[in-house]
């Protein structure tokens, strides 16, 4: 029997969509050839929906004590927000925008708590139309034959449908399926590969789950992923200009080296300027969100510049930078031999590690990554062998769990015991994919172990330390994780820490400056090392936002 479009239906939709994408994930990954053949569209969509489902469950948990269910507006809003903060890749970002578009209509129409005529079939028709339109607004250069086309066809079919909300949802699903089958004739790269659009596949699965949730009739029919027949007309399709909104797309013979994704707290005017700047830096630009929170996705050659643009616009966080090697930009996904995955505190370090070829997971203070995030980063590295750098002693168990899970998927993972980002930099500097796996792991572990590390921090409250009692606002100098010096002046504490570390010898000092630290401090410390410790070289890096005020490494 049909069910009303209310909060309970949204909850069921999330669960069914997650199950469907779980079944289809590997098949969708296998046909991922556009915009980059990196074989992770199905996985990215699954993880995006997983985040949405968690948010919806949290909304229901929040009402459990009162014995009531959330309103439709609360449930669909939670679903869209969860997708936004958990969006992965190009496809996941677009899915988040689709859900946001639906939310704009359904939440505004929910004046009766999801139990009256305001949640009628007409509201669903309007929601699907707004969802499709919003994706074109989010994508810098829309291309037909993609998930955008499939979303539009779903909205078209919904508008022609009669009956209740379940009938409208079923019509949207069928319209999406028909549009998906036609995508190889619209995109040259799909026609040559003989597959349909991977992102469109995911949307068909999600819309099928919506129809099942509203109708109560679950269908587990697999999504069509292969073209019905060879499409010679696709091979002769002209390549559009960069700003063309239709036609075919260029084959993926090359392109930017990095995928950069981050959440951004910024106002609308700043985001408008950000779109313009990022559009000049790369391609596959998608910016979704609103109300001060955005998810930014772009492919660029200069990952640092993409992050800096976000810093100028507002406060970027959860920064993820993935390096595309030659294999991941081929027409068919091919596993690379070996890669490095590094957890880094700060956008500057993320850019630095990414430029060295690492896939990075950027974190903010107090927000350590879950093991699932590390597993996904390992998958995104697209390598048979991975060197995992946690760069934090507290992440040892999390990283170990991620490594173990990745091994069950056939990836050989070496967990390099880096307890600080400076140890990670030392390990990355000696990484050599041409060596055997074991030799590379030993060399990276040795380089990390030979690097003493220190950090300067500001005390948040009075507390006891190994160096005595500190007060709120005191500068703390930590060496190898323990407080060794307490004082009031950042530069003086830094010099004291350097002298103590170099008293045991050293050949190289690495300084990583946080965003709030003046550049002159780096120059002053470099001069201090040069004058007090002969034959010791110094390198200075900018750690950027969310890095500690100062990180020190001595090799």
Report on the structure:
By secondary structure, the chain is of the alpha+beta class. Helix content is 48%, strand content 19%. It has 19 helices and 16 strands. The chain has helices at residues 7-30, 41-64, 72-86, 89-109, 121-138, 147-160, 165-182, 188-193, 198-215, 232-235, 268-281, 303-313, 347-355, 371-380, 396-408, 421-430, 437-449, 490-502, 519-532; strands at 258-265, 282-290, 293-300, 315-323, 336-345, 359-363, 383-389, 412-415, 452-458, 463-465, 468-470, 475-479, 482-487, 508-514, 537-544, 550-554. The chain has an 8-stranded mixed beta sheet, with helices on both faces. A hairpin with a 2-residue loop joins strand 10 and strand 11. Helix 7 (165-182) runs antiparallel to helix 9 and helix 18 packs parallel to helix 19 (519-532). The longest helix is centred in the first third of the chain and has 24 residues, at 7-30. It is elongated, with a radius of gyration of 25 Å. Residues 113-118, 229-253 and 326-334 have low confidence and may be disordered.
